[in-house]
Amino acid sequence: MSWPGPTRTGVARALAAAFLAGEWERAAMAGRAAELLGRRPRWLGVVVDDVRIAHPARPADAPRALAATVDRSLRGLDAADRLSRPPRRVPAARFVTAMGPARWPVPAAPTTADLAALLDLHPGELAWLADRRSLERSAGPHLRNYRYRWRARPGGPPRLIEQPKVLLKETQRRILHGILDAIPPHEAAHGFRRGHSAVTHARRHTAQDVVLRFDLEDFFASIAAGRVYGIFRTAGYPEGVAHHLTGLVTNALPPDEWAAAPRPSTPAALQAHARMGRLVAAPHLPQGAPTSPALANLCAYRLDCRLAGLADAFGAAYSRYADDLAFSGGRELNAGAPALRRAVGAIAAGEGFRLNPRKTTLATRAGRQRVCGIVVNARTNAPRGEYDRLRAALHEAATHGPGAANRAGVPDLRAHLLGRIAWVEALNPARGARLRRTLGTIDWSE
Fold first, then answer.
1. What DSSP letter does each residue of 320-387 carry, written as one string?
2. In this predicted model, what pLDDT tens digit does every residue of 371-384 receive, in sequence order?
3. β-sheet bridge partners, residue 317
């Protein structure tokens, strides 16, 4: 007798709950299931054996996966006409979840109630912010959890900034510092992590014969919710908790916001714009959320592993700062550059990313080599023009006064100049010291 689909699904969930309710041992599991069903059908032993093969250990963090395994076993038995009559009443399934094996020292949250307490939220607030029903795409602007704006980019489509509102932003910061800070990215990642920066990224490639740079198109938008869910599951969070965490840190752009986006004019930019539209329509990492940089690093872990291995094969060095990929090495890298380009493009595509062909560059020592705007020919340095303009501004302020030098009307010129000096100093301490001496001669009493 064939079982109706809803009946089979309900029995599968109920059996999964019974299996999880005690010891993960064949006789005990079959006994709890028989008690639940009010009888011990012949097919029950087959289901128990199928479950134990698929899940050698008790999957208390994955009741949905367990229920799916039971459902597949029942479907197979049904197809072989080995099921007896279906039960008249399907018992309600109640799962008690637990944390799974954790690779990192993250705080425990075995249930969504525990997650709400961890994030200092009311359960209703958690449900609203996690937006499991995708209401962000249909709600009016005043009910949405994000604000949207577009920034023009020269030669490319406009950049989308998705800014979370106050409560969601505070919650995302708790996730960042309470959970994500405990999960280390790949050592090649230099962006958005303590002790690393664009400077450490650039230093990896100083005094090399060849520097090759690549850029990932729409880096954050390319990271879909499924990858983020995988990070939280790997961290040990049960399925329901991982789904809520994923909802808190991903977003899908409302159709009316996409319709309001400025359209680029060139054919290449229009194609890139269309690709971005497909990405942001689905749940993705929003550029503007405090959790997105850390999660992007974690989701790019396999990309970094594969590109680091590729660099080793070419005798090159590799590092990444957000969407900026850099390789450097000796003269032989120049000859191998076409093959490296093809391999980087294939690996990026295999990991769900796309290279931006407009930003792929190769520079030898004969020209200026830059990584993240930093000159790396012999050592890290600010570009000569940038340094000269700053030195000229300091000289003018020292000679004619700060007012004469402040043509742009900067509100706090001294803080502005100190920031620019600190940047040069981080790249070249000797140059920074000379600029600081000039700053010390300026009369700020005007």
1. EETTEEEEEE-THHHHHHHHHHHHHHHHHHHTT--B-GGG-EEEETTS--EETTEE-SSS-B--HHHH
2. 999 999 999 999 99
3. 328
Integer Cα distance of 404 and 418 in angstroms: 17
Contact 344, 381 (CB under 8 A): no
d(CA 412, CA 92): 66
Closest CA to 280 of 224, 235, 328: 224
> What would the two tokens of residue 101 be?
């094996």
As given in the structure block, the two tokens for residue 322 are: 């957000």
pLDDT at 431: 92
- Indicate the SS3 state at residue 171: helix
- Within 10 angstroms of residue 80's Cβ, the number of other Cβ atoms is 10
The answer to whether 211 and 363 have CB atoms below 8 angstroms apart is yes
Please tell me the distance from the alpha carbon of residue 259 to that of residue 251, in angstroms, as a whole number. 17
pLDDT of 354-377, one tens digit each? 999 888 999 999 999 999 999 999
Query: Any idea which residue has 């990932």 for tokens?
Result: 216
The token duo for 180 is 């994500």
**Beta bridge pairs of residue 444:** none
Furthest CA-CA distance within the chain: 97
Q: What is the pLDDT of residue 152?
A: 86
pLDDT-flagged residues of the chain (< 50): none
